[in-house]
Structure formats: structure tokens, C-alpha cells
Specification:
three-stranded mixed sheet, 5 helices, 3 strands, 10% strand, globular
Length: 175
């Protein structure tokens, strides 16, 4: 029975797609130029190359703090990626924290440097970001934090199944 319903549904989709008539009495197109290319205007903000990581980090922190209920923010710029950690009032429920994170992400999206920033409200990650930020401000190069930044980003961004190469063997201890 399920197979019959699925087949019937599939056939109706195919038939309805083939019976599209032009609207308003317009005649169907007589010829199509196969060399004609469609040009699409880019509507998403372009990610700008980061020249001064410290200034960008300060700017993104200010944007994050401007969102209601964000008590403070710490941002580290690593290469062309920004990670923003936010502090929210203690005891706030997870749903409200999620809403605040979304609000921060929306605010950052309006900034050309923040369009691809990663936002976290995890207390541990925010403390680690604060430590890295302080050491960077004291002259230590951010490249010295490559492994720690990779670990932070790995905790924020989950493993996406389509990114897993089935031919590549997993490392010991990797899930």
C-alpha cells in the first residue's frame, strides 16, 4: 500500500511538472540560446580580509555587548575566522541563552568582519577565549594558540556527516 501511494505521488509530481502552461496567454519561448548565461548579484555580505585582528576583535566585542543581556564578550581572530564568546547573566535558562546567541549572531552578521563569526555562550570556552585574547594583547602571537583555537572551534562547530570521508581511517580516541 505504501509503495502504491509513493508511486502515485511521484507520478502526480512528474505529470504536474510537465503540464506547466504559460500564464496570461503568453506564448511559450520558441528558442533558447544555449550560450546565454545568467548573472546573479551576490546578496550575502562578502567576508572582508582581516588586516588588523586586534581592531576587528575589539569591534566584534563591542557589537556583541550592544545586544541586551550580554554582560561582556571576548573575541579572538585567528586567520580570517573570528570566535566570539559571550557572558550572560548567571542562572539564565538555556532557551533564553540560545535566543541571545542568535541575537548576537544577527548583530554580527551586519558587520563585514562578523558575517562568518562563531558565537558561543559556553563559560569554559569564553574563559579560554579571554585568556588567549589577554595573551595576544600582551604581545604573544596568535599562531601559538593554533591547537587551542582548533579545539575551541571544534567544540562550537559539530562534525557534519557529509564532511566525514569514509575512506579515511579515524584516529585513536576519535568518534
Amino acid at each position: 500500500m505504501k509503495m502504491f501511494v509513493a508511486t502515485l505521488l511521484m507520478m502526480s509530481v512528474i505529470v504536474s511538472g510537465c503540464n506547466q502552461a504559460p500564464k496570461n496567454g503568453a506564448a511559450p519561448s520558441q528558442s533558447v540560446d544555449p550560450n546565454r548565461q545568467v548573472q546573479v548579484k551576490q546578496t550575502a555580505p562578502q567576508k572582508k580580509e582581516i588586516q588588523d585582528p586586534g581592531a576587528v576583535a575589539s569591534r566584534l566585542e563591542q557589537i556583541a555587548v550592544s545586544v541586551p543581556n550580554v554582560e561582556s564578550a571576548n573575541c579572538v581572530v585567528f586567520g580570517n575566522t573570528a570566535v566570539v564568546g559571550i557572558n550572560v547573566p548567571p542562572g539564565m535558562d538555556r532557551a533564553k541563552v540560545g535566543t541571545i546567541k542568535l541575537s548576537v549572531a544577527e548583530a554580527l552578521k551586519k558587520d563585514p568582519y562578523g558575517v562568518d563569526a562563531l558565537v558561543t555562550a559556553d563559560i569554559d570556552l569564553n574563559q579560554r577565549l579571554w585568556n588567549i585574547r589577554q595573551q595576544a594583547m600582551n604581545g604573544r602571537t596568535i599562531n601559538g594558540f593554533a591547537e587551542e583555537m582548533a579545539a575551541i572551534i571544534g567544540r562550537i562547530v559539530p562534525q557534519i556527516p557529509r564532511d566525514v570521508d569514509p575512506l579515511q581511517p579515524q584516529q585513536p580516541g576519535q568518534r
